[in-house]
Amino acid sequence: DIQMTQSPSSLSASVGDRVTITCRASHDIAKYLAWFQQKPGRAPKLLIYTASTLESGVPSRFSGSGSGTDFTLTISSLQPEDIATYYCQKYSSALWTFGQGTKVEFK
Amino acid sequence: EVQLVESGGGLVRPGESLRLSCAASGFTFYNYGMNWVRQAPGTGLEWVSTISDSGGRTYYADSVKGRFTISRDNSKNTLYLQMNNLRAEDTAVYYCAKGKYYQDEESPFHIWGQGTVVTVSS
Questions:
Q1: CA distance B76 to chain A (A)
Q2: How does pLDDT run across A31-76, given as a tens digit for each residue?
Q3: Chain B residues touching A92 at Cβ < 8 A
Q4: Are A97 and A89 in contact (CB under 8 A)?
Q5: How crowded is residue B65: how many other Cβ atoms within 10 Å of its Cβ?
Q6: A17 vs A28: CA distance, rounded Å
Q7: Pick from A6, A31, A58, B64: CA 20 to 30 A from residue A96's CA?
């Protein structure tokens, strides 16, 4: 099975900071990678798919990059409403595996 | 508006069964793959199962294979998850989610329900 490993598991940042989260697949998954945001007590929300395509309605400060095994989610300027846990997910080869999550908190 | 509403969660004892439902509205249900995802208390997201638009193809995580069955009734716009031989480690919030791509279950999870809580405890 393909494993998805996110880093860091948590981070602290200030409003306006640039935040970067990485996700590594144990095997090549091309660009079959999505990013989700989950706030406490809420369902996850799709942010990005095909590694870099921004979902409709998602602020442009969110961006994704990568292909193959290494991927990145970037928040260009952290806003208070961005405090959440972020997950990557692969969706190819009949396995829809999530990373373990990255919790983003205020410093 | 696309909407997914889960129901059927509750408290059951180990070894018992439960069937979850997910009522869909606002889109052509029969044209999209559907999924179940769970989240145990204080932990991350775990993919559970996926079903194709027609229901002809189903997929399961190893942790539930042989115990859980995903199905759908396209005439009722409803997704199901039959859970048998439940264990304490199945305790979680269970979400249903719609695939984003038309007639392709290998698809990012586009729209999520609010979740239903399953507790397995003696």
A1: 24
A2: 999 999 999 999 999 999 999 999 999 999 999 999 999 999 999 9
A3: 106
A4: yes
A5: 10
A6: 31
A7: A58
